[in-house]
Amino acid sequence: MKGPKDPLHVSADLQRGDNAVLKWMENAKESLVLIGAIMSIVQPELYHTGRQALEKLFNEPALVGKHIELLDALEAWWIPFSAMTVVSNRETPLHRDMGGRVDWSDMLIALGQYEHGRLALPGLGLTYRYNPGTVVAFSGMAFEHGATCPGNRACIALYMRNNVIKRLKLPTPSWLNASDYAGCTESL
User: Fold this and answer.
1) Chain segment 118-166, per-residue pLDDT in tens
2) Domains of the chain and CATH, by start
3) Three-state SS for 132?
4) Helix axes 44-59, 29-42, angle to 10 degrees
5) pLDDT confidence of residue 56
């Protein structure tokens, strides 16, 4: 069992000797910055907590422990999420994501070469067009969802892991609220 002083762990992909993930992150820097900017609009409180988490990990080496790969990753990680999953060339059956919190938004980025992709959220009675270039943000824990995309497809799913925020003792963001946008409703 992990104690309160144990360092966080690094994903197996970041521990690979070929540095493929780090190279990909460096090449995707501009896109990742844009995704972070979108998140700052979609759920500002979660964005700021994600930024605090990155800063805390970078500035407190004891949290990283012996995992130097995490420090290397932090230099290339330009997004305020603590986790990323890539889905490639497969349908995604209906599911709920369990690593975050019900009141946090996840972000899905659709990539590839295909047409007629669909993202379904049956509990809301919604089906969206989900073609390459689509960015969607919603609570993957609150809403069952699945995707069908015929052809050459990839999806990058970005999300915040609740255990990371707890471990770093950061404030827990809650539901997006209209007050997050106070002052932004003035007409132009």
Assistant:
1) 999 999 999 999 999 999 999 999 999 999 999 999 999 999 999 889 9
2) 12-81+162-170 (no CATH), 84-158 (2.60.120.10)
3) coil
4) 130
5) 92
Expressed in percent and rounded to 5, the helix, strand and coil fractions of the chain are 35, 25, 40
Length of the chain: 188
pLDDT value of residue 174: 83
d(CA 119, CA 126): 8
Compute the distance between CA of residue 143 and CA of residue 40 in angstroms, rounded to an integer.
21
Model-level pTM?
0.84
**Cα–Cα–Cα angle for 172, 175, 176, nearest 5°?**
115
Q: Cα–chain-centroid distance for residue 65?
A: 23
* 83-110: pLDDT as tens digits: 989 999 988 999 999 888 999 999 999 9
Give the residue carrying structure tokens 């970041």: 14
Task: Report d(CA 186, CA 188) in Å as an integer.
Answer: 6
Residue 115's contacts (CB-CB under 8 Å, 6 or more residues apart) are 131, 150, 151
Q: Quick check: 13 pLDDT over 90?
A: no
**What would the two tokens of residue 151 be?**
């052809």
Secondary structure of 5-61 in HEC code, one letter for each residue: CCCCCCCHHHHCCCCHHHHHHHHCHHHHHHHHHHHHHHCHHHHHHHHHHHHHHHHCH
